[in-house]
Amino acid sequence: MYPAVAFGAGIALALLIFPLGLLFGLASYWDLVSGDNAANWIGYEAFARDAWRWPLFRTTLLAPPDGVNILFTDPIPLMALLGKIVFKATGWLPNYFGPWLLLAYGLQSLSGYALLRVLGLERAAALAGSLLFLVVPTFIFRYGHFPLVGHWAILAALALYVLMTRDGGWRPVLLGTGLVLLMVVINPYLMVMAAGVVVAGLGDGLLRRRLGWAQALGGAALLFLGVGVLSVAFGFIEPGRPPSAGGGFGFYSMNLLSPVIPQLSIWPGRASFILAGPPGQYEGFNYLGLGILGLLVLAVVLGWRPLLALLRGRVLLVLALLGMAAYALSTEVYAGTHHILSLPLERFGPFAAISGIFRSSGRFFWPLGYFLLAAALVALRARLGARGVVVLALAALLLQAVEIRPLFASVQQRAQAEAPVIDRAAWMEALRSHDELLIRPQYLCASEANRPVLYALGVVAARLGISTNSAIVNRSGLDCQAEALAFTRDLRHGAQGRDPLVVLLGSDVTPNLARGVAKAAGLACVGASFGYACSSEPLRPSVLALGGPLGPEETIGLNEPVSTFAGANGLRFLGAGWSEPGPWGSFGMGPESRISARLAQPACGDLVMEALVIPLSSGPYLVREAAVTLNDRAAPPARVAGPGEQRVLARLPNPGCTERVEIGLRFEGLRSPQQLGMNTDPRLLSWAVREFTVRTAP
What is the Cβ-side half-sphere exposure of residue 494, based on CA atoms within 13 angstroms? Predict the structure, then answer.
């Protein structure tokens, strides 16, 4: 009965926090998902609707032709695999995300109960203590990243560690190995945490003479071999390719004070506060809460002898937990907003590889946090007995639940259904008559403000089983500048189908540019609320229903000065490769920047562009020269005389007559302001252009 009550308590808490539409897969909720939930769902549905491929979790409905491994969309791969099998067999696509959330909450308290029981607590005390594992703030906080709600795996690993070091035998060894292998197809972070605890159990079990050499070495061999085989089979590791990695180690870390400083708490001024040096330290949110901190203080004061007894003979577990906690701090250690330590370990090749894969290091405090809670309850049980633990655990539970009410409210708000950002029915109808969705710029290159639209379009494309270039993955080596330049030359660049629907985001593509590139590709566009939808001519009714026609293309006249600072009317003539405008103008960004304009009247013969520019410079560094093209024809380079604002001239060979000017400025050897020590801007900048004029050559 006690395990069932513990499991039921977790289910009940999930039902109190989350909307029923989320938990039970209602279309009214899931058709409107955004954020990480949308990324998870899009990866799953694209995988399920695609053909079977190798590696097993690859789909080419996202980022064709190579496709992506849906491991990097975090859809809980094991559940996605089972869902695809069901879909291929029956045509019904199960939505497992809500049931997974219910299961994870139930298993959280059940695994906590199991851990406390194997540590010697009586059933009532273990049940009361198990409820505290449900209100660990970092567990509640992890909603929005479905696989990482599976904290029960850490608790199960700790319980199996106790069995390996107390009872020995093959059973806990095989269960521990099986748990780690299961985590390979749930989440790699949880897999590593569980593996750290299980491997410590094999070692400490051997040192404590509870496991023999065959059991310890056999378990380790099964674990490492199994992880390797599954990682290759499922595409997490691809032979001949470096492991997929991303930047951010040291940014997504834990603050040294995070476990003890109230956050998302009823403390004054802390309702929405997350302690962070760099902003990415939300990934290291590990506040323990007043209830749990209070138990830890009591355990140290009253039960320090039982605490030491618990640690005795468990040296490898202590080292594993402390090692993971140290990794959580990363090589850039912050205490509050103070940067107190920097270690150059990334220069060491193996560490650089590991930190690139497991870049969100702040999560690795979780095993130590759970162990501390369990250890405190064990120590207090030794001093105060089972009844004392029940009373203290329930008091701590009440204090904890009251203190972290802002955290509960925050999660409930994040879990609410999103408001629609597109006319879903209209976009479904339009996409049905096309064979591909191209989005410019795609998700990984788009601004944060555009992401809700991209989530919504991705959900529609996945539902229809239509491929899209806009893959919502959590790491990629995509060159956004190169892609932007490619699309200005050919709007169909990268298209795999014959009849794509092309979406251009208005924040990145001007009406003039949309018209020009669409016309060159044999497409026409309508204006949508967030940009433009372009398709082959004549536009079909379903596309016309997405928005209104574009007005006539704006032009510039010869000898007409055009300004490009913030708010100026010349911004509409800037193509790819420009920064957001400022009072200084628009900075060229990346190796190539383009100006695209239609002339008020055709121009015959050579042209000249005169531009008012400010080159990026610092000390001896100066962006001195730009290679120039007109309509992809090479022109003589343009040069600046030195730092500071100045006018440059570029002669543009034009052997015939033209009514369009596509001017390219290409730069070599660019460095960022960050590299130059000017500020933290990592962009490769060239010249800030404040004004330009096109005229006929003398």
Answer: 27
Q: β-strands 436-440, 467-468: how paired?
A: parallel
Total residues found in the chain within this entry? 698
Average pLDDT over the chain, rounded to whole?
94
User: How much is the average pLDDT of 286-309?
Assistant: 96
Give which of 76, 110, 74, 71 is closest to 96, Cα–Cα: 76
Distance, in Å, from the CA atom of 262 to the CA atom of 318, rounded to the nearest integer, reads 26
C-alpha span between 70 and 486 (Å, rounded): 26
Strands 555-556, 548-549: pairing kind: unpaired
Is 236 a residue whose pLDDT tops 90?
Answer: no
In tens, the pLDDT along 125-172 reads 999 999 999 999 999 999 999 999 999 999 999 999 999 999 999 999
Closest CA to 432 of 499, 504, 343: 499
- Could you tell me which residues come within 8 angstroms of residue 386 by beta carbon, excluding any fewer than 6 positions away? 121, 122, 124, 125
Task: Tell me the per-residue pLDDT of 98-122, one tens digit each, with 9 for 90 and over.
Answer: 999 999 999 999 999 999 999 999 9
Q: Closest by alpha carbon to 233, among 179, 191, 184?
A: 184
Instruction: Give 216-241 as a DSSP string.
Output: HHHHHHHHHHHHHHHHHHTTSS-TTS
Helix segments in 364-446, DSSP class H? 366-403, 405-414, 424-432
In this predicted model, what pLDDT tens digit does every residue of 652-668 receive, in sequence order?
A: 999 999 998 999 999 99
pLDDT band at 487 (very low <50, low <70, confident <90, very high): confident
Summarize pLDDT for 503-522 with one digit per residue, the tens: 999 988 888 888 888 888 99
Spatial separation of the C-alpha atoms in residues 646 and 128, rounded to whole Å: 74
Contacts of 291 (CB under 8 A, 6+ apart): 132, 135, 395, 396, 397, 398, 399, 400, 401, 403
pLDDT of residue 477: 72
Asked if residue 685 lies in contact with residue 579, where contact means CB atoms within 8 angstroms, the answer is: yes
Domains and CATH numbers, the chain: 2-25+97-239+248-413 (no CATH), 424-552 (no CATH), 556-696 (2.60.120.260)
For residue range 396-431, list pLDDT tens digits in order. Answer: 999 999 999 999 999 999 999 989 999 999 999 999
What does the pLDDT read at residue 476? 64
Q: How far apart are CA 372 and CA 381, in angstroms?
A: 14
B/e letters for 316-347, b = 16+ CB within 10 Å, e = fewer, are: bbeebbeebbbbbbbbbbbbeeeeeeeeeebe
pTM of the predicted structure, to 2 decimals:
0.89
DSSP string, 240-271: TSPPP--S-TTTS---TTTTTS--SSSSTT-T
Question: 592-604 and 555-556: which strand pairing?
Answer: parallel
Residue 250: phi and psi, rounded to 5, are 95, -20
The answer to whether 657 touches 608, Cβ cutoff 8 Å, is no
Question: In this structure, are residues 161 and 119 in contact, taking their beta carbons and an 8 Å threshold?
Answer: no
